[in-house]
TrEMBL record:
The keyword Ribosomal protein applies. GO terms for biological process: translation. Belongs to the universal ribosomal protein uS14 family. This is Small ribosomal subunit protein uS14. Keywords: Ribonucleoprotein, Ribosomal protein, RNA-binding, rRNA-binding. It comes from Pseudochelatococcus contaminans. It holds the Pfam family Ribosomal_S14. Binds 16S rRNA, required for the assembly of 30S particles and may also be responsible for determining the conformation of the 16S rRNA at the A site. GO terms for molecular function: rRNA binding; structural constituent of ribosome. Gene3D superfamilies: 1.10.287.1480. The gene is rpsN.
Length: 101
């Protein structure tokens, strides 16, 4: 199980990303538009830099829904490999059978 503080920190980051998503997208569109004057694009980059760092989607870490583990994460199931194996062995994931021989 991951530290509670790490899990909560990641949740705060997710909330920040959602809050600033529209503003960030608009500023990026201006900054990347080649048809606009360079001064306008530069201003957009400066405003983008003023946004909180944790508002950037790349700072969000994929974590297991059950354990909070950040590594060996399966995106489709939103679980780590360890949680997937345990739940599969218990028969709680439909269509998944843990092999044994």
């Amino acid at each position: 199980m991951a530290k509670k503080s790490s899990i909560e920190k990641n949740k705060r980051r997710i909330a920040l990303v959602k809050r600033y998503a529209a503003k960030r997208e608009a500023l990026l569109a201006i900054a990347n538009n080649e048809e606009l004057p360079i001064e306008e694009r530069f201003e957009a980059r400066l405003k983008l830099a003023e946004l909180p760092r944790n508002a950037n989607p790349t700072r969000v870490r994929n974590r297991c829904e059950v354990t909070g583990r950040p590594r060996a994460y399966y995106r489709k199931l939103r679980l780590s490999r360890i949680a997937l194996r345990e739940l599969g062995s218990q028969g709680q994931i439909p269509g998944l059978v843990k092999s044994s021989w």
